[in-house]
Amino acid sequence: QVQLVESGGGAVQAGDSLRLSCAASGRAFTSSPMGWFRQAPGKEREFVAVISTRTGLASYADSVKGRFAISRDNAVTVFLQMNSLKPEDTAVYYCAASRWAALSHNMNDYNNWGQGTQVTVSS
């Protein structure tokens, strides 16, 4: 199984930007979609964005649409560009590989998860 490693988190002010990376160790991603999820303290993990690693087609949660952008390079890294950050974006962000071909917003459709990276946005 490919190991996923997130990086790029940090502490920023509201309105700032961050770029998260998710790198696959060992070999290239499979053709399955790659997603980003986040979990704030005391809350359930929620969907943020997903991308098809084959076509580049993407889908976003309404809460981040227009502010976040998911992308991928040729084979081994998926990015999440986060602009106009808000305090409510504060969470641990996880990347994950889907077990299915469809662009799913359901975390149960993902079977390979990274360890997470903390994003803290202060007002």
Silhouette: globular
Largest sheet features: 7 strands, mixed
Number of helices: 0
Q: List the secondary-structure elements in sequence, H or E.
A: EEEEEEEEEEE
Q: Over all CA atoms, what is the radius of gyration? A: 13 Å
Task: Give the % helix.
Answer: under 10%
User: Ends: how far apart?
Assistant: 39 Å
Structural class: mainly beta
TL;DR of this structure?
With 123 residues, this protein is an all-beta fold.
List the SSEs and their pairings.
Layout: E1 3-7, E2 10-13, E3 18-25, E4 34-39, E5 46-51, E6 58-60, E7 68-72, E8 77-82, E9 91-98, E10 110-113, E11 117-122
Parallel strand pairs: 2-11
Antiparallel strand pairs: 1-3, 3-8, 4-5, 4-9, 5-6, 7-8, 9-10, 9-11
How would you characterize this protein structure?
The structure is a single chain. With 123 residues, the protein is mostly beta strands. The chain contains no helices and eleven strands. The model has no long low-confidence stretch (mean pLDDT 93).
